[in-house]
Amino acid sequence: ALSADLTSLFPPGAIAAALRGAGDTESLYAAEARHLGRAVQKRAQEFAAGRLCARRVLHEFGIEHFPIEVGAHRQPVWPDTLVGSITHTAGFCAAVIAPRARLRAIGIDCELAASVRHELWRGICTPAETAWLVSLPDQEQPRAATLIFSAKEAFYKCQFSATEEHLGFMDAIVEVPEWEGARGLGRFRIRATRRIELDRFTAMPLEGRYSFHEDFVTAGLAMP
In angstroms, rounded to a whole number, what is the distance separating the alpha carbons of residues 48 and 53? Predict the structure, then answer.
């Protein structure tokens, strides 16, 4: 179904849809199903859920029966006039799409809200991000760390569609200027820690939005 809450994470023109639960693999178009290969059932259902969400949004743009295939870098392939992004995690999936005439690129990522445990910080967080995390109350730290992870994933998806450059977690830093204790909606800023291809297209930092909802955190980012 269309999601006003997730749509609100993006600039005007973008539309998001979300789905709880598994997707029906029988609903896939043949051109989509061929990309499943030998995927296990869980992966196949997540893939189908993502396509169902995207299909619902494509309908809003007047596009029907368009198979969303998989590109050379495992990214969804959208109609030429649109940009989009898909995310899925345990029991939840979402897709966001916008006209290419309004946004150059877009990224969305959803995670279980407290899934980034302390032992994972070293591989995900810069020293400045770690310093921010340890300044928070203990009970907020796992959710804040997961927000950092999700924001970086949304950023990587967004920038990759414009540059096709592979980035690591240490190549970007997330700042949350007004942390509300892992509740509701908020904003984050993200910038590169070195020169990257995206510098040719836009100035940084970029600003994104996030939402803590149910058991999840979703981050969204777009590049005008």
Answer: 9
Q: How many CA atoms lie within 13 A of 208 on its CB side?
A: 33
**Which residues, listed in sequence order, are joined to residue 86 by a DSSP beta bridge?**
95
The fold of 112-223 is Ribosomal Protein L22; Chain A (3.90.470)
CB contact burial 29-68 (16+ within 10 A = b; e otherwise): eeebbebeeeeeeeebbbbbbbbbbbbbbbeebeeeebeb
Compute the distance between CA of residue 189 and CA of residue 208 in angstroms, rounded to an integer: 6
Q: How far apart are CA 92 and CA 135, in angstroms?
A: 30
Q: DSSP state, 76?
A: B
d(CA 14, CA 54): 12
4-103 belongs to which homologous superfamily?
A: 4'-phosphopantetheinyl transferase domain (3.90.470.20)
**pLDDT tens-digit series, residues 108-132:** 999 999 999 999 999 999 999 999 9
Q: Is the pTM of this model over 0.90?
A: yes
Instruction: Look at the alpha carbons of 90, 155, 6, 99 in this order and tell me if their dihedral is positive or negative.
Output: negative
